[in-house]
Design brief:
mainly alpha
Length: 243
Amino acid sequence: MSTFAIILLTSSIACAVTSLGIFFISRYHAWSKEHSTYFVSFAAGVLITVSFMHIIPESMEISDRAPLFMLVGFFALYLLNRFLNLYLCHEYECPDYAIGLIPMLGIGLHSFIDGAIYAITFNVSVLTGVLAAIGMVFHEFPEGIITFVLLDRGGFERRRAMVYAFLAAALSTPVGAAIAYPFLRNVEQPVLGNWLALSAGALVYVGATHLLPEVEEQRRLDTILTLAAGVLVGVVVILSQQH
């Protein structure tokens, strides 16, 4: 198989695993709504851990401007959130949509860059790509669940939440791989680092300002356990990529 075929196959597997998570959580919709706080808590643990322990350090190693792009990514989502609430939703009483829409954009950016990472690592070597893919695919299933739950809690109807979750969390990965591949020879490493930093800032915003406050409002002590489980999964993902 050509390198491009391997990249598309691997990123498509990631897309399928994410889609499986979306299907699972939408199939058991009533159960997911009842327990959605636990998924939100788990998501916060995963996203914040992966951002601080892997994406941020990786981007800073590649680009000296990574801190600036992290700041841009963080405040870009903040301003977009304010725009939705102040100018689009205040007349129609729809601020809850931002609960799902803003995190979806952050996750979509992250998944798109995941696809680019597949393209880059497999161009280094097949072994490097496979080792990276093992760790990255591992988090795709909960990522699909997380995206759907956030959209559902934001007030989107079930079918629309499934479609948006698929586009943002699943399809964006092979699309990112396909778009990145032709430009790999022309893209310098610092540019990749900047994009990774932008993604990190967006994900930190999602975890810290959307997910954690949502969990704290429920006042459930047992969500600490699911938060810890998310942190643990994030650590396992990172270690699996390093070895």
